[in-house]
Automatic annotation (TrEMBL):
This is Putative toxin-antitoxin system toxin component, PIN family. It holds the Pfam family PIN_3. The lineage of its organism: Bacteria, Candidatus Beckwithiibacteriota. It comes from the Bacteria. Residues 7-101 form the PIN domain. NCBIfam families: putative toxin-antitoxin system toxin component, PIN family.
């Protein structure tokens, strides 16, 4: 019997941390690259990521497109726009975020655990 891989949504701040700083956020993406987890994403998350990378971090359009394509190769696209809706539609086990103010305080949402990157790495090891 094949083990069911955890399904999860990474919040925009996790992608930004991965691309700019590495660390635990990048290790979360490594889990997807290595086939240890199934990533779920929505167009809204990708749009928010593109806006933050260009506006706040001054990335070029070319670099943003490259990153979006890399994510697209790793993730399953779902229609709902907001992160919690995306997690529900994708039947996610986890929503991984660094947002302490709005999301981590919830701890879970309709059976979906809301955790930070370090917690995901602890679960996956």
């Amino acid at each position: 019997m094949t083990k069911r891989l955890p399904r999860l949504v990474l919040d925009t701040n996790v992608y930004i941390s991965a691309f700019l700083f590495g660390g635990n956020a990048d290790k979360c993406l490594d889990l997807a690259r290595e086939g240890e987890i199934n990533l779920i994403i929505s167009s809204e998350i990708l749009l928010e990521l593109a806006e933050k990378l260009s506006g706040k971090f001054f990335w070029t359009e070319k670099d943003i497109v490259k990153v979006i394509r890399r994510i697209g190769d790793l993730a399953t696209m779902v229609q709902p726009k907001q992160k919690l809706e995306c997690a529900l539609a994708g039947k996610a086990d986890y929503l991984v975020t660094g947002d302490k103010k709005h999301l981590l305080v919830l701890k879970s949402f309709q059976g979906i655990k809301i955790i930070n990157p370090a917690e995901l790495l602890a679960i996956s090891s």
